[in-house]
Amino acid sequence: MDQDQQVGEEALIFPDVPASVQPPRHYPKWPWMLASFLIVVGVATAIAWPITVPYYTLSPGPVYDTSDFIEIEGGHVSDQGELFFLTVSLKEANIFEYAAGQLDRKVSLREREVIRPIGVSQEDLRRESLEAMEQSKQDATFVALTKLGYEVTFIGTGALVIETVPDSAADGVLLPNDIIIQMDGQVVAFRSDIIDYLEGLDVGDALTMVVERLVGELTDEYRETDVGLELGPHVDDPSRPMIGVLLGNNEPIVEFPVEVEIDSHNIGGPSAGLMFTLQIMDQLTDDEITKGHRIAGTGTIGRDGAVGPIGGVRQKVFGAIDIGAIAVLIPAANYDDAVDAAGDDILVVRVETIDDALEFLNSL
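RESULT FIELD:
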């Protein structure tokens, strides 16, 4: 009896657990830890993403068919073959884009001061880029029509100062809206005349200019003024001289015998000049200069037909490869970098003048 009583008491203290009642589950902690980590990373990324570093990224930009940009009275667009001009996408980098740019061979990094000097606004830089495009379009039209035997009137009236770079040689010497008409006794008809003239000078050289300057803020009257300065180092290459101005063209006197309309679609820069020239010539001749091929290219065009260097050549070569061009026309000054980027993926054609480009096209 005592034994039965003892068993009963134990039964009351430790009752049998029904099979339908399960012990509480112990879930693993790592999913919660991972979720928390991802949330922290996401919040940190959202906070850090808008923070930029002092660099720009250069990556392949859109590739455009030049025939979509040019309309010519009495001209015709070839139904076989295409001429493409190449662009670069330029973006102020955040820390993530900077890191990615270190690993991507198609992306180049440039210090911010090289692209946009300290004290120069993005708006001023954009305006200069659009001014360069305007001159490129006019020069391309001039070269194309001249090569085809047309009589052309194209007279420059000076280089327009858009803005000066703080702490540069021009700071406090030149003013916005000044029109530079002479440099060391040489006539300045276009902004490119100044760029060409500086190539023969060194840092520290003295420079004298004649400018047309507004008499007052509330007047349209100009008067000629002599100014002088000492050339400083270029922000991109300290061994090269720099005045320290953003330049455009003063309104030129233009009389083209053929109505050529180039809508640049708000794209800036001068590097489409070569391909615009070829497209104008293609539309005004009976033969298709591409011989039915897809040809890409880049390069500035001078009024003498010279093809000048451009920036972002590696990115432009990658763009030409991506659209399946059989060849890419490249300024002589950029040729080595272009060949290195191209490898065996595309033919790189070295051009110094418009005649070099035409010679290659005629050989197809």
